[in-house]
Write a structure and sequence with these properties.
This protein has twelve helices and nine strands. With 299 residues, it is α/β, with parallel strands linked by helices. It folds into two domains: 173 residues, NAD(P)-binding Rossmann-like Domain (Rossmann fold); 87 residues, 6-phosphogluconate dehydrogenase C-terminal fold (Orthogonal Bundle). α1 links the parallel β1 and β2. α4 packs parallel to α5 and α7 crosses α11. The longest helix has 31 residues.
């Protein structure tokens, strides 16, 4: 049982975290703090938070756990505001989609209190934003990556892990560097591509006609382009080196496909498509197997 949890950012991620812990009966009080008074008010109306707080000092006072669920570019300023008031025994974590930049910001802002910061990243989301998008079961069966620091005490890592487990999540661990390389490939690049495709079509003179005939394939491929532009701008810039590497690799793949298309090489195109098809089918089966094991208590 957590007596008090403070959440910076009460939208989809922070709000769902609060709702899940409340549903599990794992927290007595959740307080929210953020840039928007309207969002805080709405979060309180929805029962996501119990109190709206307007200062970092009041937010972290006597808190067992602090979650930073704001865009990653705000992490350093939030931690700097927390640092003078951070009491021994309070653990701070985050939900940012990049980790090396967050760790650097935390070291700069927290100094000797860095041991109290356990970096994290829930691998879950929706294309909707704000408190109204928050749902209690967002994290059920989803992975949460903890990128623990050498300074972290085991009991502090476990406190963060336990909070996410109460939300129904499955805990994984990666180093900050490995985390950013992995998610540049499988999360950050797909978002960049989805945004680029929708923007490209929207700028065409016959965009209305194109969107009129866009169907399920287009919808599925571009769903994530409905996500927060501010949040994904920050993620894109924060993970620039790894994302540039993945983007260059993808552009080389596109160049290869263009050359094959120009040459009319159907066999080579089909070989690439078939390899992708098999890889995706194997990935889907692996996910289904993991979910079945989780439901049945497997490891």
């Amino acid at each position: 049982m957590f007596k008090k949890i403070a959440i910076f950012g009460v939208g989809l991620i922070g709000g769902s975290f609060a709702l899940a812990l409340k549903k599990a009966g794992a927290v007595e009080q959740v307080v929210g703090i953020g840039r928007s008074a309207a969002s805080l008010k709405r979060a309180k109306e929805l029962g996501i938070i119990d109190a709206m707080i307007h200062s970092a000092e009041d937010a972290v006072r006597d808190a067992d756990l602090v979650l930073i669920a704001a865009p990653v570019a705000q992490t350093e300023s939030i931690l700097a505001g927390i640092a003078p008031h951070l009491q021994p025994g309070t653990v701070v974590t985050d939900a940012g989609s990049t980790k090396t930049d967050v760790v650097a910001a935390a070291r700069k802002a927290l100094g000797k209190k860095i041991a109290q910061f356990v970096p994290g990243h829930p691998i879950a989301g929706r294309e909707l934003n704000g408190p109204d998008a928050a749902i209690a079961d967002l994290y059920v069966g989803k992975k949460v990556v903890l990128a623990a620091l050498p300074e972290n005490a085991m009991q502090d890592i476990e406190r963060v892990a336990n909070a996410w487990r109460q939300c129904g999540a499955i805990i994984h661990q990666l180093t900050p560097e490995k985390h950013d390389c992995v998610f540049a490939a499988v999360s950050h690049l797909p978002h960049l591509l989805a945004y680029a495709l929708v923007d490209d079509i929207a700028k065409k003179p016959h965009a209305d006609l194109l969107f009129q005939y866009a169907a399920s394939g287009f919808r599925d491929f571009t769903r994530i382009a409905g996500s927060s532009a501010e949040m994904w701008r920050d993620i894109t810039l924060a993970n620039q080196p790894a994302l540039l590497t993945e983007l260059d690799s993808y552009m080389a793949q596109l160049t290869q496909l263009r050359d094959l298309l120009a040459a009319g090489d159907g066999a080579a195109i089909e070989a690439i498509y078939a390899n992708a098809q098999h890889a995706r089918q194997n990935w889907t089966r692996a996910i289904e197997t993991a979910e079945k094991q989780d439901r049945q208590g497997g490891d």
